[in-house]
Structure formats: structure tokens, C-alpha cells
Amino acid sequence: MGTVTLGVSIAVPEPYGSLLQEQRAGFGDPAAHGIPTHVTLLPPTEADASALPSVEAHLARVAATSRPFPMRLSGTGTFRPLSPVVYVKVVEGVSACTQLQQRVRDASGPLVRELQFPYHPHVTVAHGIAEEAMDRAYEELADYEAAWTCTSFALYEQGADGVWRKLQVYPFGGGATLPNVPAQATSVETPAGTPVTPR
Question: Are strands 152-158 and 3-11 parallel, antiparallel or unpaired?
Fold first, then answer.
């Protein structure tokens, strides 16, 4: 069956998701419209396609024992010069995101892996573009604020075209509805930009 590239993330809901996506496009980031706004829990990870059922069962178990938590974004940060990334900071929900990503990658599950960089939840708004544009992103979103209740995460697969597509949403507590996480305006959602971005 071959391999697939998977990722897990928390979608930033509307209206915040589309606004930040449009901002990212405005800074000249060519990946903007292929990467709706998100907080990564698992960066791009290769897996055997045959492992998908066990991956989905594992994520369902993680979500079933998780509870909604407040998320708040505020201001900007950057990974430069280590990596050419400008991001909006997660200032509330950091510990919950950290615990979730650890459980997603737990050694007892099918998504165990080491990270290239220490985990740092964030929302990328510019990646790999001209320094001047990176500076503009850092400055123009310095006062950005957003807050919502996180009630789920999702599994995504990267297609041969480089686009990430949502496979399944996992509501916390095993619920069937997602009242607090509206879909983003575009039809494509993704867990991450590129594997070199610190996550």
C-alpha cells in the first residue's frame, strides 16, 4: 500500500483562521492558501498506509480522554535565525497543547517519533520568504489577539500535490458534534507548513 504523510493539528476557527491566512498571503508566502491556519500537534510524519486504522483508533482514544480548554493567541514571535519562521504566539493553552502532542506521539501508539526541535505551539504566519516580508509580518501582527475554546483536533494527509487534506476530526470527550470549531473558509486544511519548520 505504500506510505502516507500524516499530521495532526488544532484548526484556528473562524473568523480568525481566514484572517490570518489572508494576512499570510499578503506577506507573499506562496504556501498561504494551501495551509489554513493551525497549531501543530504532530508535524509531517511518514507512516505505512496500512497503519491508518491503528492511527485513527489511537487518536480517537487520545481525544476521548481529553477535555476542552481555552486557547488564546497574542502578539508575534520568530524562530529566526534558526528557521525562517514568523508566528503568532500561543499564550494560553500551551500546557494543554504540549500534553496533547505528547500523547499523540506516545511510545505505546503508532505515531511515536522524535521531534527535530523542542515542541513550541504556535501559528505560523510567514515561512521562508524575504527578510523584509518576514519583518513586516512580525510588526503588523504584533498586536494581534484571538481567543476560543479548543474542543477537538484533526488528522490530515499530505497529497502528492503537496496539499494537506483533513481525514478525520476527533472531538474531545468522544462527542459527535463540534459547535465551537467552525470550518475554515477554504476547502483545504493542513497540519504544518514544511518539515523544516520548528514545531
Answer: antiparallel
